[in-house]
Write a structure and sequence with these properties.
This protein is mainly alpha-helical and 88 residues long. The chain has helices at 3-15, 20-30, 33-50, 55-61, 66-78, 81-86.
Length: 88
């Protein structure tokens, strides 16, 4: 199985999850607590940006660096993931 197929396999597995508890259990098996916390913090920062908060406001409400926030902002503006998930 190549890397692309492995990624598809991962995403298909995530789509099969039926509850928050199943999702939490899988992510706890796949990632460290710090990695999960970082993902949650990035998602929260994206939500704040979508609400119209400024960089300074987001930085003061999160533990995200300005470099990471810049990356998140680019994804919010030009990507598809954050916007599609957070607008649901």
């Amino acid at each position: 199985m190549n890397d692309s197929e492995k990624l598809v396999n991962l995403f298909e597995m995530i789509l099969k999850l039926e509850s928050v508890e199943e999702c939490q259990a899988l992510f706890e098996d796949l990632c460290t607590r710090k990695e999960i916390a970082n993902m949650a913090e990035r998602l929260y920062a994206a939500q704040l940006l979508l609400e119209g908060k400024t960089y300074n406001q987001v930085i003061s409400e999160t533990s995200i660096s300005s470099a990471t926030l810049s990356r998140i902002s680019q994804c919010v503006q030009y990507g598809k993931g954050y916007s599609s998930v957070l607008k649901k």
